[in-house]
Amino acid sequence: MEIGLTLMIVGMVTVFIVLLIIINLSKLLISIVNKVAPEEAVKHKTAPAAAAIPQEIMAVISQTVSQVTGGKGTVAKVEKI
What are the angstrom distances between the C-alpha of 65 and each of 13, 37, 68, 70? Predict the structure, then answer.
């Protein structure tokens, strides 16, 4: 009985230590990669002047959102992708 409890505690402590090592090494790896190869700035493609969405379509979208959300949702912005 005593040997089983000792083995369980040793095993749990070993797993905990290994997890701490993995976490710290991964943090170190992330910081090294960020210093060596910083993330490039994402260039957003500027779309040509977006055509205005017709009022009928906006009304349908607004009604659909209102119906689906039970009147709690609103349409803040609609963009054509």
Answer: 53, 43, 5, 8
